[in-house]
Structures
1.
Amino acid sequence: MMAGVGVMPIRVDGNATKSLESAFLSPKIPVSSSSSKLLLGCYKGRLPDVSLVQKRSSDFGNNRLTVRNSISVDKRGVSSKISDEDYAENFRPPHITDVFDIPARPSTFCAKTSLPLPEGRQVNRWSTNLGKMFVHEDDRVLLKTIKYASPTSAGAECMDGECRFQHQWVARAGPRSKIFFDPAEVNAAIVTCGGLCPGLNDVIRQIVLTLDCYGVENIRGISNGYRGFFEENLHDIPLSRKIVQNIHLEGGSLLGVSRGGSKTSDIVDSIERKGINMLFVLGGNGTHAGALAIHNECHKRGRKVVVVGVPKTIDNDILLMDRTFGFDTAVEEAQKAINAAYIEATSAYNGVGIVKLMGRQSGFIAMHASLASGQVDVCLIPEVKFTVDGPEGMLQHVQYLLETKGRAIICVAEGAGQDLMANLSNSTDASGNPVLGDIGVHLTKEVKNHFKNIGVAADVKYIDPTYMIRACRANASDRILCAVLGQNAVHAGFAGFTGVTVGIANNHYVLLPIPEVIAYARNVDPNSRMWHRCLTSTGQPDFV
Ligand SMILES: Nc1ncnc2c1ncn2[C@@H]1O[C@H](COP(=O)(O)OP(=O)(O)OP(=O)(O)O)[C@@H](O)[C@H]1O
Ligand SMILES: O=P(O)(O)OC[C@H]1O[C@](O)(CO)[C@@H](O)[C@@H]1O
Ligand SMILES: [Mg+2]
């Protein structure tokens, strides 16, 4: 392949340029910065297939981070000043070219609309300012930004006893200058699984709008989660810019959701039948486990399909991310319930207000809602054990609050105190999630019985706003997050990443391999500053 044959030259390093076309088509060619001088002027054919990489291992014991002083052009045609090994271990996002030989092509993405102009002219899809429109392949985001000086420092996550700082680089999300799909051949599908979450329609909308910007016309929604792939009475929903234009004005999911029914082989059979080659999966931990299984099965069957996740969980229980969409809205909506409980309790004689919020195994909503309200006296979360009876128990504290303040407000996460309830069914829902006992109802009974038994009048009001919170429309902050995540999911798909999910880390948008984010559910750390801030605000003691 001759260099510079009628194609735009791209910069490889400070001294050298290389033909874009040859960069797309050449196999992985590692070169050191000194050998990169070979690229000066005319690049003719393959460089000798020897690695002149100067490897400098960073000094972190078992940590396998390495820094390479190299410039390489991998088989994706991507010139790298930082090689894949520079990702923190396990954070290199899988790519379709890891499995298939697919040539890269120039991006068709244009931030401008593709709608026809009044006189029938199409807006030019090709931006005149490509220079700053794309993120660079080597762009990375630092996952952890605090250097803890001691393992005893609040919230410290130390990999070794000395708490040495480790650079954990992850891929930056965003549009790439090179893509691996011809928009005319893209057959995209979107599916929403698990429970509802504010912002689902915003993400669906942004995925469709962004696909449209790339020039994709063939977009479908799969009805009611994974079930829509194979249940005969469920039909796909055609999606277009026009159809999704106003869907974000309502809560819920235009496509519907479901739990259970995740049979990977049936789903992939359906993907093959429908000819889907770009799948966007919106859901929580379970959904992402399903997405990973679909990604693996597609590749096993030799199907050139990319699977990209968008984490959806109101519980905020996905690892490594600042937050997931819908969480901020949930915290805000919860304020109404807490405030109602507060007003009722302060207006009553010896009023006790109890509010149950979602959070199956993670108490983020209850913790943040309690802290935000400044009205909560007791916050109970699944991560922190508590007792109800006895001198250290919660009831004694509620009694003390009535004696001193004349009211008590309790905010409890649904997964808290499950060990306190007898006769739990041990059953699971269709997806295998445990069916919880109702801790809100349980605590309400306990509080009522306690004050009845000691002959003190108490006016107990229980509020369960959980589904009202989940079914509402996303707030402005979440809508922005949804917009960025939805757009980045499409950029990831076109850039050939698969088995990945999008997220926000340290306020930057990233791509993460799915296994890294679903290894276990993210929990509130009882040693974290945030939990301590919550306790500082409520003034509650330990109930053990
Ligand atoms: N380990 C798994 N492997 C494959 N599919 C799974 C797995 N776990 C769950 N699923 C499927 O993923 C879908 C959603 O799972 P689930 O109902 O647990 O919701 P989720 O994605 O975890 O979101 P939520 O936060 O609402 O619980 C279901 O169709 C379920 O069958
Ligand atoms: O009633 P459903 O649909 O199972 O949803 C309840 C669960 O969904 C979640 O909101 C997670 O999506 C949990 O907090 C809650 O336990
Ligand atoms: Mg789940």
Note: Residues 193-195, 225-226, 259-262, 283-287, 289-290, 293, 313, 315, 431, 433 surround adenosine-5'-triphosphate (ligand 1) (CB under 6 Å).
2.
Amino acid sequence: MENVIEFHNVSKKFASFEIDQLNLKVKKGYITGFIGTNGAGKSTIIKMIMNILQPDTGDVHVFGLQQPQAEKVIKSRLGFVYDQNIFYPWLNLQEIQKMIAPTYPTWDQATFLHYVEQFELPMKKAIKHFSKGMQTKASLAIALSHHAELLIMDEPTAGLDPAFRMELMAIFQQVMVEEGRSIFFSTHTTSDLERYADYIVVLDQGKILLHAPTDEILQNYVVVKGSNTLLDRDTKAHFIHIIQETHTFRALASCKREIADIFGEHVVMENISLDELIFYLKAAQRQ
Ligand SMILES: Nc1ncnc2c1ncn2[C@@H]1O[C@H](COP(=O)(O)OP(=O)(O)OP(=O)(O)O)[C@@H](O)[C@H]1O
């Protein structure tokens, strides 16, 4: 299967943060959600995809082309959407479009006008007077109007109200109808991903803890609750992380069926949310 983004042994060091030999392959044609707690390194990775930051060592490929050598071609084929205005704040959408359109050979004015109308964006209002959600939509309209094959988004739903967020997620699904298009976006709103993302990447302290199809995660990972008397060296080995109270434990396991076979009705199994998954994986990483 073709990959739209590839990191090969990428390292990047800041004073108090490090990405060490990171490998990542994001599949073409799918929505991939990128999650992890504050400071996990999501923005740093997105900036390296965009060549805003450069790795100390290792290679970043987008569309099979290497950054930074192919930056110009890569940028012409992708759309970068984030929740801050990246345009001159005093310009309106009409002026921005006039400035941007000639820079993209694939610019499609009819598509631009279509999205401006669908997103109910005013053409003549200065961008600085747009709400956060309107700014996100404006970036998205521009990305879609040059037929970006890959949409990269750093927390596009941050600060949006639930109705607006749902609308944006519906738009993501709609734009995926264009064959071969891919979306890679970071978020703290994990409930959106449970419904809309095909793949999930969990990051912590610059390390990928899990990268798997969303369905597989939600079907197989479980929180198991039971009595401490069930835990010995052999049974403990079936859990990724165990939290023990005085008499009982709760633990994360990655194979629901295996746990059912071993413990039967002696334990309670609960479906996991992505927030719980991040919590347990992070705790396991630190133990
Ligand atoms: N230019 C920089 N110089 C030094 N440290 C940096 C720089 N950029 C990021 N960092 C540090 O790298 C770490 C990862 O930051 P990053 O913004 O990538 O995390 P994140 O997962 O996007 O976080 P959040 O979810 O809070 O946005 C943080 O500890 C941050 O302080």
Note: The CA atoms of residues 106 and 146 lie 5 Å apart.
